[in-house]
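Table 4 source record.
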Amino acid sequence: MDLNVKIVKILDAQSYVSKSNNQTYVTRFFVGETTNTQYPKIVAFKVFGEEKFNAMGIIVGGTYNVSFDVESREWNGKYFTECQAWRAVRVDVAQAQNANNSGTQQSNPQPQPTPQPQQSADDMPF
């Protein structure tokens, strides 16, 4: 699934050690507000791995197209749902670049040289 969101918060990294292989794993969460709906919704996304999160370049205030999978898990008869982001592409930078490119394609008027006063033969110093 894909969703356009404006990032409102980035949560601290959470790390845990696997019981099976004693490796440390890191997950990151970021929270976004939908931008393409009549009634904006808040969505929390989980990213597995610090490297993957850093590669996404998530910053607060940026607008991103986030690709994610939705998964629910059952625990003690209750279900918990999470959105696991696997790609985030910033879209507000692309829009700003397109606006700048269209502005630079317009012809910029060159300043006209100022006219120099014409000198007659009587005004010559020699």
